[in-house]
UniProtKB/TrEMBL annotation:
The keyword NAD applies. This is dTDP-glucose 4,6-dehydratase. GO terms for molecular function: dTDP-glucose 4,6-dehydratase activity. SUPFAM superfamilies: NAD(P)-binding Rossmann-fold domains (SSF51735). It catalyses: dTDP-alpha-D-glucose = dTDP-4-dehydro-6-deoxy-alpha-D-glucose + H2O.
Amino acid sequence: MTTLVTGGAGFIGSNFIPYFLDKNPNTTVINLDKLTYAGDLNNLDEVSQTNRYRFVQGDICNQTLIDSIFTTHKIDSVIHFAAESHVDKSISNPDSFIKTNIEGTYTLLEAARKHWGENNQSNRFHHISTDEVYGSLGDSGFFNEKTPYAPNSPYSASKAASDFLVRSYYHTFKLNTITTNCSNNYGPKQHDEKLIPTIIRTALQGSTIPIYGKGTNVRDWLYVLDHCKGIDTVFKKGRPGETYLIGGNNESTNLSIAEKICSILDELLPKAKGSYKDQIAFVEDRKGHDHRYAIDASKIGQELHWRAVESFDTGLQKTIKWYLSKYKKNTV
Ligand SMILES: Cc1cn([C@H]2C[C@H](O)[C@@H](COP(=O)(O)OP(=O)(O)O[C@H]3O[C@H](C)C(=O)[C@H](O)[C@H]3O)O2)c(=O)[nH]c1=O
């Protein structure tokens, strides 16, 4: 088996590839990544010398390149992570989101149709997506696979469009597609721009820890390795054409995450005076900021027996230690 993993140098992809190679000893992975600002090959050091792993630098919108990868490497399946993912960037500059997330997904689907043929149920195309396609929840209720799409940001709209393209290739061409929509991931290797790395980095720098608005927005936090296990499970056992939501069953406001991380840092790396919490500051809110995301993960639980197992406390400890070492402050 040869699996094309797109975006494997990104946060979730670079956690997924080592896990996937380890769990699937007869599989070779071709990692196609453009190496934008968000990709980092250092995060794949542990597999770079493995003969079942190859890296190709390139753009998923480049049809000629994708064709040649399918032919040269005899691709059997695709796991498609590559995406522009940062909501704030999609608000200030949506262009690359439309190109990569929509056109890139289309280019990959077309290559799969061309190389595998229509009515093909053996070669799987697994699309990785987000719960943000469902929009924003109030203080109660959960997203499930039947929730109507209502994306609010250019990022989530571009992901929604890509989900619909994937869906259309299943219905129209009988490509063996599957989509997973996950909640907020955290863990080692995440780009500095996202909330949890931002809190850790700014705390250690002694600067302002920026919390948008009042800090009352809620996200459901999923440890990245739990997500990797969920993807591997759905990839192998999920039903063609289906969508599975993958959540951490772990809701938290942004402010309480910042306070939690500060408390852990106060213990691991006490400041000479005061607490890291003193650095928390409320800053201008994100435009159109979604209030709450929360996932009902009972479909994947009941059908495929997957559930998130990492507790937020242990997951955060591991994450913070990884960043302390990254920022060369590892006195832990
Ligand atoms: C960077 C930053 C963020 N925030 C707030 C904004 C959000 O309410 C929350 C998380 O923000 P972040 O940008 O880390 O993640 P989301 O906007 O929820 O989106 C993330 O999770 C989904 C599932 C994806 O699909 C996205 O690709 C991924 O980026 O913290 C702050 O308050 N301060 C900050 O400095």
